[in-house]
Amino acid sequence: xxxxxxxxxxxxxxxxxxxxxxxxxxxxxxxxxxxxxxxxxxxxxxxxxxxxxxxxxxxxxxxxxxxxxxxxxxxxxxxxxxxxxxxxxxxxxxxxxxxxxxxxxxxxxxxxxxxxxxxxxxxxxxxxxxxxxxxxxxxxxxxxxxxxxxxxxxxxxxxxxxxxxx
Length: 166
What we know:
Layout: E1 2-18, E2 32-44, H1 53-71, E3 75-80, H2 91-107, E4 111-114, E5 119-127, E6 134-138, E7 151-152, E8 159-160
Parallel strand pairs: 2-3, 3-4
Antiparallel strand pairs: 1-2, 1-5, 1-6, 7-8
Helix pairs in contact: 1-2
């Protein structure tokens, strides 16, 4: 998983048109969103994340919480952003993982917004200008398991289990 984290004064978006992978949205609900004083997480789910989704989400939450603690912030917007990688997970699995990330962050007591998946969106962002305002993260699964694993994450070399992908 790739994440570009941006500490913002404000962020707003509007879903303009859908792709063939777009999640269904009501006519008005979910097509627009905004946030003030928070962190935008431009997030891309990669193919490797499909092998150990629970571990990737857990690792992402740990990394995001460390970041938020440093800047004293408890509000995030997960903004799907496929442009961070050329090795994308399937749309179905990407959406599942993004929803899992959303729920895991909420379980940690954060205020979480998730922008629509699979939609072309226009957005307007006003970022802060301090040394910790922008951060790029490559999230890998953290696991000590070795049995039944037959490939490795290309970033951290952690073992990955190849399972039947639906």
